[in-house]
Amino acid sequence: MKAILSALVFTIFLIITGCVEKFTPNLHATRYYLVVNGLITNQPEVYTVKLFWSITPGETTSVPLTGCDVTVYDDLGHVYQFTESSTPGCYISDTTTFHGVIGRKYTLHIETNNATPLHHSYESEHVEMKEVPPIDSLYYEKVIITEKTPTYGAQEGCQIYLDAYDPRGSCRFYRWDYTETWNFKIPWEGVANKLCWISENSKNINIKSTTVLSQDRIQRYPLYFISNETDRLSERYSILVNQYSISEKDYSYWEQARGITQNNGGLYDIIPYSLAGNLICIEDPGEQVLGNFSVSAKSSKRIFIDETFEGLLNIYKDCPADTFNFANPNLISGLNVYRWIIYECHGSCGNIEITTNEHSCADCTVRGTKIKPDFWEDFKKN
Fold first, then answer.
1. How far apart are CA 278 and CA 293, in angstroms?
2. Cβ(165)–Cβ(185) under 8 Å?
3. Do 160 and 201 have their domain in common?
4. 20 to 30 Å CA-CA from 175: which of 110, 119, 129, 324?
5. What is the model's pLDDT at position 55?
């Protein structure tokens, strides 16, 4: 049973993150499991419901469930249609006709139609959208990882904290996710694309209950730690945190999922979904359905970090591979195929070209994008 559960946990991680690495779990299951991942909020944004079949022995990927009829209806009888997007198995809402309202109850309904031989229907519980307080404070502190010595410099990381407070005491169960964005520069003069941005969504589970506290207050919640083994802090860093109000039942679901990831460790320690949630098969209530349909109000807060940190990993230190002395760089074998120029000088310095065998050392768009995010503010770094 533990092997089956671990395999299903990993399957759902592949679905959420879009990972396509081959992985064949050691399990004895003989059937597919439907995996549902959906969230609606009170914000005027596109809501997404993702539908997949989980893997079975001998297969290495999950199968998106296409051609389904996906709707959400509320306790006032309004029905909202979700349309399958260009991404198979991904169904999205229409922002002009639907956004969640605090206090309403919502239900997800799925008709598989011809997508499956059984033509089954699935439905979630009625889930109320609870109000959520704003994030009171989002801040960071430097963390000394290694003290400075006569031989080596200090190494520093960054701990991001969060404070929240609901004076009404109505939101006792919280969940957070975040999107981090940072820019980075390639340090070589011969590189055309030097400055890029990267954005990544959180992969860890952040939840907190205040039921044992006298006040509905959260202080110095350690949301995320940034180590020095990355270039996130090399230029400018930003994090957008979303705060959700969830029910006690949803909190229990996320708590169990977090417990499984922590107990397995290693490969499984960043898996965000793992258990049967709040959906059932109408024709066969005994069928296990994985994932969860979440309904929550959302508040968000963003901070920027411009400070300089010591001892950050230099990911470009091993870039230089070969040095050539050609008046015409096009004579370099494999140029722009498996060898790229990162530095060149012609004239008084002679004819020198330094090349790399790593494309990411010569072009920042291999890792990121040159498109500056709309929210990015101009700044001068000290």
1. 7
2. no
3. yes
4. 110
5. 58
What's the CA gap between 374 and 354, in Å, rounded?
35
28 and 40, same domain (yes or no) = yes
Determine phi and psi for 251, rounding to 5 degrees: -60, -40
Q: How far is CA 152 from the centre of its chain?
A: 35
pLDDT digits (tens, 9 = 90+) for 131-156: 999 999 999 999 999 999 999 999 99
pTM value surpassing 0.85? no
Please choose, from the candidates 137, 158, 297, the residue with its C-alpha nearest in 3D space to the C-alpha of residue 217: 137
Spatial CA neighbour of 89 closest among 110, 107, 63: 63
Rg (CA), the chain: 25
Task: Determine the 3-state secondary structure of 145 from DSSP.
Answer: strand
Residue 268 lies in a domain: yes
Q: Closest by alpha carbon to 141, among 131, 129, 156?
A: 156
DSSP string, 213-281: SSSSEEEEEEEEEE-SSSSTTSSEEEEEEEEEE--HHHHHHHHHHHHHHHHH-GGGTT----SB-SEEE
Copy the structure tokens of residue 119: 């033509």
Please report the pLDDT score of residue 277 as a whole number: 85
What dihedral do alpha carbons 284, 126, 298, 65 form, nearest 10°?
20
For 319, the 3-state DSSP assignment is coil
Q: What pLDDT is recorded for position 74?
A: 97
* 171 and 265 within one domain: no
pLDDT digits (tens, 9 = 90+) for 51-74: 988 755 334 456 889 999 999 999
For the chain, the straight-line distance linking the first and the last C-alpha, in angstroms and rounded, comes to 56
**Residues 286, 188 share a domain:** no
Q: What is the DSSP letter of 211?
A: T
CB 1 within 8 A of CB 49: no
Count Cα neighbours of 27 within 13 Å in the Cβ-side half-sphere: 25
Domain count, the chain: 3
- pLDDT band at residue 287 under the 50/70/90 scheme: confident
* 266 contacts 210 by C-beta, under 8 angstroms: no
Give me the residues paired with residue 281 across strands. 122
Which domain, by its residues, includes 72?
A: 2-130+246-298
- Secondary structure of residue 6 in the 3-state scheme: helix
